[in-house]
Amino acid sequence: MSRLVAASLALAISLTACVEIISEPELPGPQPPDTSAGDVIEDLGLDLADAEVLRVLDGDSIEAVIDGIETEVRLQGINAPERDECLGDESKRRLEEILDSGPVQIAGVEFDQFDRLLGIVTAGGLPVNVTHVAAGLAIPLAAESPIDDLVLAAEERARALGVGIWNPASCGSGPVPEIAILSIDANPPGRDEEALDQERVVIRNRSDAAQDLSGWVLRDESTANRFEFPDGATLDAGAAIEIVVGCEPAPDRLTWCNDRPVWNNGGDTALLLDPDGRIVDVFRYRDEG
Questions:
Q1: How high is the pLDDT of residue 196?
Q2: What is the β-pairing status of strands 117-123 and 69-75?
Q3: Which residues, 6+ apart, have CB-to-CB distance to 226 below 8 Å?
Q4: Can you list the residues of the chain whose pLDDT is less than 70?
């Protein structure tokens, strides 16, 4: 095990060690600095710059002044719930609290297609990107980033403890149904635009009872692409169904009827949400080529 991976696991454990599994929505507060975090930041070779946070836009985006320049910063490698999703407002509020907990530094990694700086943010010595995932208020993205080991270890720990979005009581009641995303065919043969009926997600009902999927949502990690299951959609116990991006009907199939591809060839994350916005399952993939 590399020093980075070992430190990642230690950090994820330290961030959530005091969190109890609870039946009511309650989230861990900002944690005190941990010495292993400084080691990890150093190992990554990040060039951290002092920053002044002007405004928190949502759970994974801020406006800040870095080296005298006002910049919109998207937290690298993670995705927080949207404001209208389960714990979206809580994610934004908690990010504000964390950024107020100590001096803020930002290491810019690259700019995205919206000209936002993708950055790793620290507050009081802790990598905020990681603490947010450890609190169950964000998930890792599929695209590779310098903090992969950190955020993936933090997510694993948050899921095990049932905190934040992983707490079934955060935005709903009752047990989360056993519906699983089995596979994603993101890059079928041929031109993407001409293979929409082959671009598909397969889900299965692993419970012993039929499940009404009316109002459920399947979305990608950008949240820009969202498929809402139609009223009356039902999945029998043990049965599977595919959701294709195209519009060609077939048995055991639901059609998205989108006019362009949805799932990124290079990697993406599929989230299956119930009508209360609770995450039922997550499927993350990367291009192995």
A1: 97
A2: parallel
A3: 217, 218, 219
A4: 1-42, 288-289
**Measured distance CA(140)–CA(282) in Å, rounded:** 11
Distance CA 216, CA 271 (A): 11
What pTM did the predictor assign? 0.80
Q: Report the residue count for the chain.
A: 289
- Collect all residues with Cβ–Cβ distance below 8 Å to 115 and sequence separation of at least 6: 72
Could you report the per-residue pLDDT of 205-249, keeping only the tens digit for each? Answer: 999 999 999 999 999 998 889 999 999 999 999 999 999 999 999
What are the structure tokens assigned to 54, written together? 């002007």
* Per-residue model confidence (pLDDT) at position 84: 84
Rounded Cα distance between 204 and 28, Å, is 33
Tell me what pLDDT residue 29 has.
45
Strand stretches in the chain, DSSP E: 49-58, 61-66, 69-75, 78-79, 104-111, 117-123, 126-127, 139-140, 179-185, 200-205, 211-212, 217-219, 226-228, 234-235, 240-244, 253-255, 267-273, 279-286
Angle at 142 between CA 141 and CA 144, to 5 degrees: 95
